[in-house]
Amino acid sequence: MxxxxxxxxxxxxxHIGSGEALEPFDYVIRENTFYRIALEDCLFDLSGEDRxxxxxxxxxxxxxxxxxxxxxxxxxxxxxYTSSITEGVQGLxxxxxxxxxxxxxxxxxxxxGHTHRAYxxxxxxxxxxxxxxxxxxxxxxxxxxxxxxxxxxxxxxxxLFEKGKRPDQEIKQQMERDIEKLILGxxxxxxxxxxxxxxxxxxxxxxxxxxxxVKNVGRREGHLSPDSIQMMFEVTRSYISDGDRSSGFExxxxxxxxxxxxxxxxQRLSIEDIVKSCQEFYxxxxxxxxxxxxxxxxxxxxEQIIGEAQKTSSDTFLVxxxxxSGVWSVxxxxxxxxxxxxxxxxxxxxxxxxxYPMGWVKVTVS
Length: 366
Prior knowledge:
The structure is a single chain. The protein has helices spanning 39-44, 48-59, 63-73, 87-96, 122-137, 142-152, 156-162, 167-184, 239-242, 257-261, 271-293, 299-310, 327-330, and strands at 2-10, 17-22, 27-30, 33-36, 81-85, 106-109, 119-120, 197-199, 202-203, 209-220, 223-226, 232-236, 248-255, 316-320, 348-352, 356-357, 360-365. The protein folds into 2 domains: 2-15 and 120-365, no CATH class; 24-104, no CATH class. It is built from 13 helices and 17 strands. Strands 2, 3, 4, 5, 6, 10, 11, 12, 15 and 16 form a 10-stranded mixed β-sheet that branches. A 5-stranded antiparallel β-sheet has the order 8-13-1-17-14, sandwiched between helices. The radius of gyration is 24 Å and the shape is globular. By secondary structure, the chain is an alpha+beta fold. It starts with a strand and ends with a strand.
């Protein structure tokens, strides 16, 4: 077993979601700080008078009153965790707290169950590395692989119709899986070469997250501008957003060379293969972002990412992880065919705090 350490620096804000959408009954904001509270504890601690007020609000369906009561009475010594907030989130909370039509939802970061510390799942890093490796290994062979896969899927449409499924969508998903198998040369999960690679989860420091607005930016009337959709997410601090080079984490990366030597997997992946694939794949995606933002108010942040991509060495590379990484970074070059309603993709970008591209991480292997 070969063991490496991945020292990872957050270049831009990252969001890896827990799937939990928090409403103002789940949190309060005071003095520029987000407090994740336990509603049950808050209600249990209410005085008799406040409890009577709460019961009256429930009877009258006074959601605004309930919000205000929780905001006022929550015991900040009994919170699960805290996060910083951006000025935009602070202003939005003050402006919309009294409007019950606005849910003020905050999409939470994935956290450990007991300590409530935010963490980066090893699977997120491994998935980003896998996309780069598979994409680079599949270059120049699209026609060959597509022909083989299409031949193998003949006759499946009628079967899927009988099962009540959407044949076009189902077959497209199956084609994607089969093409990846052809590229990596494996037949099932047991001989998948990535089975020999393991990356540990990594906890982040207690002050690692910030609640930020995320803005979707696209070209409207000839120039880049954000839309009006309200989105709030817990994201990580980062070098480009906070000027802090210490924002990051370390993960253990294990390569089971015994499994590889015993041909328990379809092919051997070396650390050199991984570094080179990630360097080439994600440098190209950084250039695509740079081209997208060129000559706009957002260009300087994309230029910083390009600069970091150009400074990589034999043991460093960029990856892109988490939500809002963009379709270019999570699909395979030459095989890219995302399922979108109009078949159009890559025309917008999502920016933390309305400024910063999301998901960029710089990795150093030791």
